[in-house]
Each structure stands twice: as C-alpha cells, then as structure tokens.
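@channel sequence for tomorrow's demo:
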Amino acid sequence: MNTLQKNILVVTALILSFGIGFLFGGRGSDHTALSFTNLEGAPTTVDLASVWKAWGLLEERFVPATTTKTITSQDHVWGIIEGLARSYDDPYTVFLPPLQSQSFEEDIRGEFGGVGIEIGFRDDILTVIAPLKGTPGDKAGILSGDFIVDIDGQGTQAMTIDEAIDHIRGDVGTEVVLTIAREGEQEFLTIPVIRDIIEVPTLDHGLRDDEVYVISLYNFGGTAVDEMRKALRAFVESGTNKLILDLRGNPGGYLEAAVEISSWFLPIGEIVVIEDFGSDKEKLVHRSKGYDIIEDDWNIVILVDGGSASASEILAGALQEHNVGVLIGEKTFGKGSVQELVDVTEDTSLKITIARWLTPNGISISNNGLMPDYEVDITSEDLEADRDPQLDAALAFLNTGTVPEAVVEEESAE
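structure tokens (generated this afternoon):
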C-alpha cells in the first residue's frame, strides 16, 4: 500500500471514529412521537413510526450550536427526502432542494462559470472523468482519473455529484482550489483553477503524413453529429483506408448523437445500445439507422481511456462488439446509467437513475466500463515527455495488423 492509499484510509478511519463516538455517546429514552398530517401517498407497506419518533426526539432535545442560523420544519422535510435519495446508494440519484434545483436549471442554460471538468464516482470516490480540452481545468493540469479530495478545503467524501458541481462552479474570474489524489503521486496535489465560461471544441480531424486519418471527438453535444458527418466525408475523400477515432477524454453527451454516429458505421437494424429499466420492465433497444458508409478494406482503431464515458462507451462498445474497429488504450470510466429529472414541488426536484446502458451483447457499461482489445497506458513520464504510446500503438496496428508485443507485455507487467 503506497503513501497515498494510506492517507485516504486514514481520512476514512477518522470519519468513522467520529461517527462511532456519536453512535455510542447518546442515552436511550422513551418518547411519544409527534403527530403529522398530509401523509397521503406514503407507502402502506413501510412502518414510518421510527421516522416520526426520531423527528419528535430532535424537536424536543436538539439545541443548536449557534443562534445565527434558523432551520425550519421545511428544511427538515428536505433533509428527509435527501436522506431517502441517498439510501438508494446511487451517486447520480439525488434530491435538489430549492437552491440546488435553481442551480441545476442554470447549469442547463449555461449561466455559470466553471473549470471544464467532467466528474463522477469511482469506487465511491469523487473522480475526474475527463478535463475538457482547452478549458481552465485542462490548462491547470487536471487529468482523467484524478481523485478530488477537497474543494476549497471542504472534503468531498459525503458530497453528491450535484453538491460537488455546485462547489466547483462560481463566478467567472474567481478561483477554486482542488486538492487532488493522483495515482503514482505520494502526496496530495493542490491545484488552483480560475473559473471561466466553458467553450469546448466538438471535434478535430485531419490526414497525417503517414496516410492515417485521425478524428478526435471531444463530446457528443448538439453539433457532434453534423461535425462527424463532415469529418467522415473528408476521410472518404482523402483516399486512405486507415482511420483512428479518438474518444479519449470524451465524457459523453446525448444518446441520440451516439446512435446517429454509430449509424455511419453499422448496417441498418444492428443494436447500438440497450436501455435496461430493470427486471420487471421491457428493455428499449436502440438500433442503427443504417447510414453505413464502411468499405470492406477500411481499418479502424478506436482510442479510449479512463476519461471515455457515457455516450463514448456506447459508441465504442457498439463498434467493438460488431467487429467494426479495435479498441486500444485504457479501460473506460463506466458511466452507463440514465437520469431523469422529476419535479417534487414547484421549486424542488429529484434526479433519478431510471435505467442502465447495456452493450449489444448485454454487458453493463456501469459495472466495469469497457476493456480495450489492446491495453496500453500513458504514464506521467510519457506526459512530461509529450509521448503518446496509445496513438503509437494504434498507428502500429493500422500498419501491421497488431500491436508490438513489447508494448502489451510492458503494460501487462504493470
């Protein structure tokens, strides 16, 4: 176990010890619960007496540590719903009380400053899925796979995704300080980032001198389909039959974009992705629309890494399992779930995970992500030296039909 892992374990142990002190520090007491009204809609198969009793005990005994903050009964209601959402043990299922709900709407409209990183949970730790190209986070040196330990000195262990986003976001021109745990580093990294309006390019493409065409797709946003169409047309007109589709650091976007882009590579009717709503509900199968421009002599490599998530995994999984292209790089992030925003009241909402994505062969993306056909890592030494062994492996495969054994053996040994 390295120093960084020990540090994380120590932090966890301290939190647990603090909690145990409270668990065993109280005194038992009998109490008659308060009476409550407007309970229609409550589940009839669940005994909620313990909830009302706990609330009654708190109302009777609790003394605030400060007199400067007033907590209302409505705040307690929001807290109950928030705790209920947390009990489903899904970091993407969260309750948004009034202020957070308003902030979420601002997120959708883009009325905020950010740092340009996509975040999610890996092994219950807040993790950078990918820094978006050219954004403040990217320029500050944040990497895919970085664990965010603190945001402006506030620990992230108990934060939801939306709470973390709310802390990272802020006025344009202001600073947010992220404390990062990074694989291979013995100490935490402190990275200050200046917030800005986030403008992310969708796609870059071009023909290399070695006659390999490279399309780098950075997200599956609103312009992705049109830009991908133009890039593929340019690839066809270039006269080469060697294509690299680079999805590294692509955190995803719209499902419709992933299906549309997959349709350029797959015959009509082939499964792109399966939307699984649970064992008692019918699955929804998303199929190729059959634009299918692929020629028999095309050779395609898809580059992926730990920053490839969501729609990236849908596209990469479909092309891999239909034997359209070979995956090279690192295991993808594993963000394969679908969220729906549902109003609870006029100014509050629940963001609920309603489905999970399955590859055409029925493999859950959320469980482990996608494994590349050839696993090739990029080390910190590679980054410092501006080397790209994953791209080198892709070029070797397109020229020889395989990845050099030395590269695969080296990565397997690690």
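heads up for whoever presents: Residues 3-90 form one domain.
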